[in-house]
Amino acid sequence: MIHRLLASFSTDSVDGSKVIINWNPLKRCILMLLLAGTLNVLWLIWKTYIIITPSLHNLVNLPLVKFMVGVNCFFILGLFSLIYPCYKLQKNPKAEAILPYICVGFFVLTLMYDGYMVGSMSPATLCGMISVISVGFVLFNTKLVYSMLLPSLAIIIGLIYCSTLGMIPYAPIFNIAAMQYQPYVNSFWLMSMLYFITPIAIGCFLVFDIILKQWHVREKTFQTLSRIDPLTHLLNR
To answer: Residue by residue, what is the 3-state secondary structure of the chain?
Structure first.
């Protein structure tokens, strides 16, 4: 199944089934779930590294990091489990109408949870939200994107407001006090932000690059078909 999906990324054909923007909603969900699952695996690797590196324990909330390992395992299992119904129900109209909301909603939930843990206003969270929104508008219809975007923004604003008032901790996974309340000059915090941002940026870049190349190939082919007869290979005019 995954092999077939990756084979669809070919940019040397304008076959409608191979162009991402022509995929059905559930096939797009599979792509999104694969990217989201991979992202959660990378987050899990970071947390595991923290746990096995005693020198970093004083810079984080270690009990929370250990708890989040289980949470990320649950997220990974949930994301990859959704791939199967998306694959099997691609010709089911009801599934195509409902499953995208479930898949995108679950992914947004994982993103917001980890985003809050590392800081709702941190570079990693802001980069993640902007990248996901951009890819979302490319892969899905605006109704689906806005139905997820507006509640997410409301929740993020609420989290920031509560953090400002001291009702909830800000970036609870980090020990900000150990960083002398200046995480922006702490090498561990900076490297962590870089680790979180890099896979998101690369993943979104690859998706946009594939779509752009497919678009150019398709436009070039359409221009050729408008001038040359496909049967005789002679000029139409």
So the answer is: CHHHHHHCCCCCCCCHHHCHHHCCHHHHHHHHHHHHHHHHHHHHHHHHHHHCCHHHHHHECHHHHHHHHHHHHHHHHHHHHCHHHHHHCCCCHHHHHHHHHHHHHHHHHHHHHHHHHHCCCCHHHHHHHHHHHHHHHHHCCHHHHHHHHHHHHHHHHHHHHHHHCCCCCCCCCECHHHHCCCHHHCHHHHHHHHHHHHHHHHHHHHHHHHHHHHHHHHHHHHHHHHHECCCCCCECC
Phi-psi region of 180 (alpha: psi -120 to 50; beta: other; left: phi over 0): left
* Residue 27 one-letter amino acid: K
The residue length of the chain stands at: 237
Closest CA to 33 of 91, 110, 123: 110
What is the per-residue pLDDT across 182-217, written as a single tens digit (0 to 9) for each? 888 899 999 999 999 998 888 888 887 877 777 777
Does the reported pTM lie above 0.85?
no
166: left (phi over 0), alpha (psi -120 to 50) or beta: left
CB atoms < 10 A from the CB of 113, how many?
A: 13
Token readout for 204 is: 């979104």
- Encode pLDDT of 122-150 as tens digits: 999 988 888 888 888 888 889 999 999 99
